[in-house]
Each structure stands twice: as structure tokens, then as C-alpha cells.
């Protein structure tokens, strides 16, 4: 993100903070439906619910889970794969538009983080950060859209070249001009790494996969596909230890052999992390059923969670696709399922 966008975001966020403090006097409120999270999933749910006159309330977070209100897309530059924007759109700008649309139809948005919930009985109770000892707010239904965050290695140089050669999403960024016909590296040894490396061969001149051990964790099918691809070289027992570049884009990765300790330079213009994501489920971890990786489990083809009246949408329940458009899709599903559920349980 450019310095200017960071500045704009900071100013916007501080204005929102002041606004939310003013609104914050409106505490101990009861709402029909509360949405926690403000990425594409949360805002799509808000749009559908507000158009259905259900007066949704959204808590968009105050740098919750490490992200500004608007979510993961606020940390990227061009989004080129969201339908309706043929020229592409900056991630931050796109999320501003999502927000405007939610507000236009009447969603009430609080720039606060929800730090605690009690889903043991209805109405559900929840507390705002820094007000955990106060009387909670309540809601008849909840939509959890708190998202996820890609794991990073926090290497020296990573902050300088993040989104300037370093990415955690090949499907999102692989087609960008800076990676075209350039040598690229993928870090990871599982199915995602195999999938991302194979995908990147469409764009890069060659793809190196750095695997810290002498074997892959990927399934046999994926491993075979990776190892038989002439445009991919697996560097076994290898880790990345530093990212270098010309100050504006990445052009070199310093690597280390985990067995011999040998340090080498690997000239690459792209580094893709495929080492997993962490879903933002701390809030609900003892109250909703989660899978072994911490993602919220929903019923098949549904956003219904293990607690009736609580719905989950977006990356927090999806470890497969993790795209803005799929998050928006499940946000829509959550709103429609929530609307139906409310009309059955709280008929007007
Ligand atoms: C660098 C980068 C580039 C990407 N590029 C693309 C792309 O080009 N195309 C694409 O389709 N996808 C892209 N993605 C993936 C996409 O951003 C995600 O799939 C999508 O944002 C997920 O949306 P979401 O609504 O589930 O949650 P998120 O976007 O993760 O948003 C969740 C929001 O909820 C807030 N929140 C969390 N906890 C709380 C709480 N307790 N209280 C209140 N608020 C809370 C967070 O602060 C955050 O703002 C990219 C991701 C990254 C990181």
C-alpha cells in the first residue's frame, strides 16, 4: 500500500474512531441481527439484510485481527478478479464502496471490535473491546464474518516488499505484470504450495518451491503433479531467510540449507507464501464447532453453525477458496438464511 493510501486510511480510521466513540454512548442495545466483521462477507450480509429492512448492526472492528475496517483487501493494491470492475480497483477503494452500499440501505456501523460473546442462550450477548466489565449488548441473531489472516514468515525485508513482490495468494496476484515471465518462489510443502506453484507456471518463467524438509506434505496426486512439472524446481531442505530488492520491488531471496547451513542467493521477482492461514475464531472457539484448523464448521451448502441463530460467512469458514467473491457469496447466503430464521422465530 502506498504511503498516501496508508495516510488516508489512518485519517479515515481515526475519524471513524471519533464517530464510533460518539455512537458508543448508545450501549446495551438490542438488535435483531448483528454482523461481526467488515470484509466482503460482512458487507454483503449487511447489504441484503438492510435491503430486507432488518436494520442490521455491524461491528467493523478497530484493527481487529490486524486489519483495518474493510478487512484483508485494505492491504492490497489492484484487485483484478472481482466481477464488475473491468479495469481493476484498488482493494481499499473497493471496500469503501462496499461500506457505502451497506450504509446507503441503513446498516448502522460501529468502528469497534467485539471482544467477547456468549452464545449459550438467546438473545445472544456480546461485549465491545474495553467494555468487557459492562452490561453487554444483545442480538437475536449473529453473523460471524471475522475473516482470516495468511501466515507470514516475518523475514527481514518482508515489510518493505510486501505486495511489491511478496504475496500470500497466487490466485489473487499471480497474473500481475510484476510477475510475468519472471522467476518466482513459493514457500511451503503442502497441497496449497503445490497448487499455487503449478498455477504460477502460467505466468512466471520458472517456479522454485522451497521445502524445509526432504519431503512434501502434499497429497500424492498434488506432489506428483508438482514434481513432474518441468517449469518447477523443488529446493529441498531449504528455507528463506531474507528478502532483498532495489527498494521498490523484490528481486532476490536469501536462502539457507537446513542440513548444511549453506547460504545462497536465489534471484526471484516473486515470493508466494503457502504456509497456511489463521481464521479469526478466538472469539467463538469454545462456543461454536470448529474444525482441526480452527475454521467454523457450517452445515453443508449453508452458513448455519452449530448454534441455531448464529451464521458464519467468508474466510472464517472457508479454507478452500478464500476469495473476495466467494466471501461475498457466503455473506449473501448468511443474510438470506438469517432472514428466514428470524421470520420463523420472531414473526412480526
Ligand atoms: C494481500 C491480499 C490480497 C488479496 N487479493 C485478493 C484479490 O485480488 N482477489 C480476491 O478475490 N481475494 C483477494 N484476497 C483474499 C480476500 O481478501 C479474502 O478472501 C476476503 O477479504 C475475505 O473476506 P471476509 O469478509 O471473509 O473477511 P476479511 O477480509 O478478513 O475481513 C474481516 C474483517 O472483520 C474484522 N474483524 C475481525 N474480528 C473482528 C471482531 N472481533 N470484531 C469486529 N471486527 C472484526 C477484521 O478487522 C476485518 O476487517 C487477498 C487477500 C490478501 C491478504
From TrEMBL:
Family: Belongs to the class-II pyridine nucleotide-disulfide oxidoreductase family.
UniProt keywords, alphabetically: Disulfide bond, FAD, Flavoprotein, NADP, Oxidoreductase, Redox-active center
UniProt keyword annotation of Ligase present: no
Quaternary organization: Homodimer.
Catalytic activity entry: [thioredoxin]-dithiol + NADP(+) = [thioredoxin]-disulfide + NADPH + H(+)
Taxonomic superkingdom: Eukaryota
Name under which the protein is recorded: Thioredoxin reductase
Pfam families assigned to the protein according to its UniProt record, in alphabetical order: Pyr_redox_2
Species name: Cetraspora pellucida
GO molecular function, one term: thioredoxin-disulfide reductase (NADPH) activity
Boundaries of every FAD/NAD(P)-binding domain copy: 32-330
GO CC terms: cytoplasm
Top enzyme category: oxidoreductase
PANTHER family: THIOREDOXIN REDUCTASE 1-RELATED-RELATED (PTHR48105)
Cofactor(s) this protein cannot do without: FAD
Any Gene Ontology biological process: removal of superoxide radicals
Cofactor, how bound (note): Binds 1 FAD per subunit.
EC number: 1.8.1.9
Amino acid at each position: 500500500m502506498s504511503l498516501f493510501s496508508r495516510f488516508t486510511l489512518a485519517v479515515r480510521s481515526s475519524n471513524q474512531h471519533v464517530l464510533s466513540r460518539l455512537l458508543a454512548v448508545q450501549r446495551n442495545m438490542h438488535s435483531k441481527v448483528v454482523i461481526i466483521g467488515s470484509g466482503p462477507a460482512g458487507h454483503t450480509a449487511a447489504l441484503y439484510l438492510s435491503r430486507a429492512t432488518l436494520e442490521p448492526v455491524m461491528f467493523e472492528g478497530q484493527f481487529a485481527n490486524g486489519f483495518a475496517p474493510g478487512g484483508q483487501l485494505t492491504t492490497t493494491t489492484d484487485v483484478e478478479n472481482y466481477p464488475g470492475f473491468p479495469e481493476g480497483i484498488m482493494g481499499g477503494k473497493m471496500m469503501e464502496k462496499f461500506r457505502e452500499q451497506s450504509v446507503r440501505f441503513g446498516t448502522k456501523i460501529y468502528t469497534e471490535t467485539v471482544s467477547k460473546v456468549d452464545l449459550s442462550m438467546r438473545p445472544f450477548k456480546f461485549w465491545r473491546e474495553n467494555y468487557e466489565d459492562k452490561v453487554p449488548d444483545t442480538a437475536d441473531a449473529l453473523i460471524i464474518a471475522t475473516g482470516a489472516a495468511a501466515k507470514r514468515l516475518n523475514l527481514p525485508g518482508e515489510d518493505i516488499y510486501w505486495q511489491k513482490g511478496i504475496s500470500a495468494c497466487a490466485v489473487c496476484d499471480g497474473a500481475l505484470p510484476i510477475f510475468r515471465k519472471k522467476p518466482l518462489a513459493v514457500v511451503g510443502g503442502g497441497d496449497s504450495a503445490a497448487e499455487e506453484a503449478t498455477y504460477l507456471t502460467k505466468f512466471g518463467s520458472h517456479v522454485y518451491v522451497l521445502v524445509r524438509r526432504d519431503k512434501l506434505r502434499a497429497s500424492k496426486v498434488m506432489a506428483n503433479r508438482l514434481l513432474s512439472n518441468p517449469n518447477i524446481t523443488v529446493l529441498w531442505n531449504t528455507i528463506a531467510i531474507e528478502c532483498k530488492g532495489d527498494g521498490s520491488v523484490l528481486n532476490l531471496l536469501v536462502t539457507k540449507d537446513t542440513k548444511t547451513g549453506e547460504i545462497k542467493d536465489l534471484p526471484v521477482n516473486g515470493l508466494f507464501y503457502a504456509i497456511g492461514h489463521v481464521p479469526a475464531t478466538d472469539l467463538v472457539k469454545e462456543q461454536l464447532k470448529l474444525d482441526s484448523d480452527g475454521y467454523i464448521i457450517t452445515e453443508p451448502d449453508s452458513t448455519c453453525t452449530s448454534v441455531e441463530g448464529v451464521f458464519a460467512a467468508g474466510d472464517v469458514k472457508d479454507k478452500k477458496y478464500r476469495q473476495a467473491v466467494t466471501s461475498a457469496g457466503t455473506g449473501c447466503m448468511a443474510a438470506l438464511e438469517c432472514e428466514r430464521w428470524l421470520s420463523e422465530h420472531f414473526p412480526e
